[in-house]
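Box 3.1. Reading complex inputs
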Amino acid sequence: MPDYQAPLRDLRFVMDEMLDFPSHYARLPGGEEASPDVVNAILEEGARFAREALLPLNQSGDREGCLLEGGEVKAPKGFKEAYRQYVEGGWPSLSAEPEFGGQGLPHSLGMVLSEMICATNLAWGMYPGLSHGAADALRHHGSDEQKATYLTKLVEGVWTGTMCLTEPHCGTDLGLIKTRAVPTVDGSYEISGTKIFISAGEHDLAENIVHLVLAKLPDAPEGSKGISLFVVPKFLPDADGNPGERNGVTCGSLEHKMGIHGNATCVMNFDAARGFLVGPPNKGLACMFTMMNVARIGVGIQGLGLMEASFQNSLAYARDRQQMRALSGPKAVDKPADPIIVHPDVRRMLLTQKAFAEGGRMLVMFTAQMVDVVEHGQDAVEREHAEALLGLLTPIVKAFLTEVGFEATNEGVQVFGGHGFIQEWGMEQLVRDARITRLYEGTTGVQALDLLGRKVLMSQGETLKVFTREIHKFCKAEGDNPALTEFVEPLARLNTEWGELTMAVGMKAMNDREEVGAASVDYLMYSGYVTLAYLWARAAKLASQSLGGSEDAFYRAKLDTARFFYQRLLPRTRAHAQMIQAGAGSLMAISANDFGLGFEI
Amino acid sequence: MPDYQAPLRDLRFVMDEMLDFPSHYARLPGGEEASPDVVNAILEEGARFAREALLPLNQSGDREGCLLEGGEVKAPKGFKEAYRQYVEGGWPSLSAEPEFGGQGLPHSLGMVLSEMICATNLAWGMYPGLSHGAADALRHHGSDEQKATYLTKLVEGVWTGTMCLTEPHCGTDLGLIKTRAVPTVDGSYEISGTKIFISAGEHDLAENIVHLVLAKLPDAPEGSKGISLFVVPKFLPDADGNPGERNGVTCGSLEHKMGIHGNATCVMNFDAARGFLVGPPNKGLACMFTMMNVARIGVGIQGLGLMEASFQNSLAYARDRQQMRALSGPKAVDKPADPIIVHPDVRRMLLTQKAFAEGGRMLVMFTAQMVDVVEHGQDAVEREHAEALLGLLTPIVKAFLTEVGFEATNEGVQVFGGHGFIQEWGMEQLVRDARITRLYEGTTGVQALDLLGRKVLMSQGETLKVFTREIHKFCKAEGDNPALTEFVEPLARLNTEWGELTMAVGMKAMNDREEVGAASVDYLMYSGYVTLAYLWARAAKLASQSLGGSEDAFYRAKLDTARFFYQRLLPRTRAHAQMIQAGAGSLMAISANDFGLGFEI
């Protein structure tokens, strides 16, 4: 069975040493609660919960899956009990506002915990995970009464939430939804329609489920401008706020999926279910994006957690498994063969996992600081800056970390050789679970259009400049630091090129909008590598300063990993840069009819 | 349910127009049997068999899996009946020698059929698939009596074969095997030990199973020089050659795997099983490579089949599924949204599948010609040339086609969005089935060492030159063809660079052997892209000559795909070239102890 230790030392490096979270927290209102001692205690407790309560259920949950019987869904054995512990531990309320029963700690802290949960049991993590988005939508757009009724219960964790967006005929294109909301005399609405792919849509972990549902009012405008958001509880709250009458929303069936078997992915039928409008009519898409942005970063963290889990277990295997001799001569002379970690290509795979996981952790925590500032920052200029940067980084966090997360979990399988394909070892489950992260909450292609089209080009490149200026400043400051030349020089070049490539695509796009879509995914991946290069350079700076002390080995390994990232992963930008510049021509030339002439008769 | 049409038009392009198979067959002894009419009839019949008999069992076989009861394995429903049809159709004997009951047709023809089988039902295809390797080992190394007893049955298809190499503690490093062979008075051996990952090790499709087993004689030298090959039948043939007494080889358990659920992957226990030495004692590794090389090309064909299947179905979905409007304005104005094939990024994914599948088909058939020549060629010089080129291309076919096969089947899932993750659509099964192809018969890392270490560097680069000279000749001949400049110029550059990179690694390796392993996988991928670039340039030449005729659309699509390959896939060589040159330093620096300092306490 796979093992897992939360990377507490690495988190300390990123949070305390690199990004100075102690000062960051001290500046947030109420942040004094998040003292280093408190933070450490929470991380250690979270690590224990993930390892002891969730990890043992990951493989059994995958094998068992969920069961739909008489309209009720049973989660795999042990899931309910783990959820009870989670609620009793106070985890759901960690970073929620005190006025709704929360502990008022910074959001970033919840994101660290989330990595540990995703690393040990993604399918389980999706039950409480969806609640965050639902809670956020209510917090920002709900009425006071809705907050009192639903938000407090979500914060407490006794109820969970869902996001009901997708329908059989539309996912990305929500303007096409058919679910209807008909006003009734008491001000509520009757919601009717079918939603699919609803994670945690029905289950036995919590006493009630709060569905956030996109639907159309009778006279709504066409398309995405005519979407409204509704809250539709599974049980309508009674006068005391407890689950009362069963509402007309039921699980029609469960999907059979490639992975995350332990999570109930439901077809939800709304049959004149009673719902309540959240926010203004026809403004549901904006409200939905509130949920969505939180969820997108959450999915990026899933990618991070899965690659850390895969890395730790393939490392253990590579140290243990003996096969062949090192090319340069035997290393373990007393053994019949050397442990496979001596082989350069095995090291390449392990270092790929390590560099992406540790770099991904830096990216997530870098982004998490902005989330804190956007939510609670006291300085308007600072908040605006964080908001711009957060907008830019959100699609990168979501898509880049899930793309490389899928690669890294696959490297984990590859290190195991044939054994990686066998379920018992648990490595292939990480791949199957990781596969969904490239798809849900907007595919990589959708994130890429958001990044290049909405964030970068629609702002005339201004949003990008917010970031490239920061990178430029770093490169200038470290320009004459000989210890960092190997990092700063390529970083400065890439940073300049990033701007140039953006300009070039922008110019082409003025003549042909298809150029945006043609460049988008390569642009996103390119952006991800440069972003990680910036963070790895900062890590290298810190590590090089800390060599020679009592933790010399830790900092040396960090520096070695930075070097590996620059020498063996960053060159991928050479391919992406060329492909961005290649333009739309070779994509659009072939007619849709002619794609299949090799096999169509 | 996924559909599939064998790509007969594309096969005609590759076989008849591009690689002139009619002349190739005419020059082989007995090749006159393989007239264009016969070949066409066989391909059409094979296409029908794959589509009608195998495709309908692919998803059900995946869901059902295999069942071990009382030592007997039951394959999924319908598998046995499909195998009966396969044998009755004469398919197992297609390219076997007439003296053993074969039809004497060229091997390349069997390889085309193999693509169709892998595209429609890989798990099923593994039952007869392993017989080829076993038959080849017997044909080359077996005694006349062994051939008469076993080979004829394998050719007829009434018995199937296995390759029993891997043991729990060793796969790649076969020198470590523990299975023992003790001579008995009658000249046979008692084989005892445990073999794992034995595909089709036990099943109910055929009346007997012929295991080819690696084991050690009592006084065998240490390591790989002390391995011998044995034939161990499930039922010992009686005096009439029919299955007689049950031998001491049994299936101990079935593996639970990520994919190819319909194939029985067995733990095989040999308990003083009666076996017969094949080839000379202690020369088993050489005999094993006979099986292995055939099997390696076979696995490359699996990658090809799976990507073709994925491509066809994602194409159908992309034409049907309506979502969003084209960035440049609505295309299907009468519909609520445009079919997603209008979006450049969806086209990028489809063209990636198409370019790899069609390019992979060229590579397989190019290699197939060499297999024919090596087996049956009449001219010694020609045979030697083919042998060298085949040695070079075998690891590329195996590893490159399975690496890009995994990518392409994943693109198929991505085109489907969230639906790709749902089992019902069949796209995720192709990914799960494809995952094993990067592992078995030698992982990508093992193939890469074979290519760079054994094939290229051990020959002082001579084996590579056999191929680069051919590419150089093509570039020179087409140098002043303006229609091909966009292909020939980059190809010539890459071809030169290929030699330079090889030389550079070779020089470094003289000081440090680890440099070979450090460069190997990037070198293999680089080699794969250049090889496909050469074949795509040849295809482009042909297509550009054929424009304007009655099949203008077909040739135009071929040219468009060549252009896409050059503009959007070939730039990946820029990354691989840099990573090859980066050397071993950043891989070897970090100590095995320090990899885990971020999480180890």
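In summary: Chain A is about 55% helix and 10% strand.
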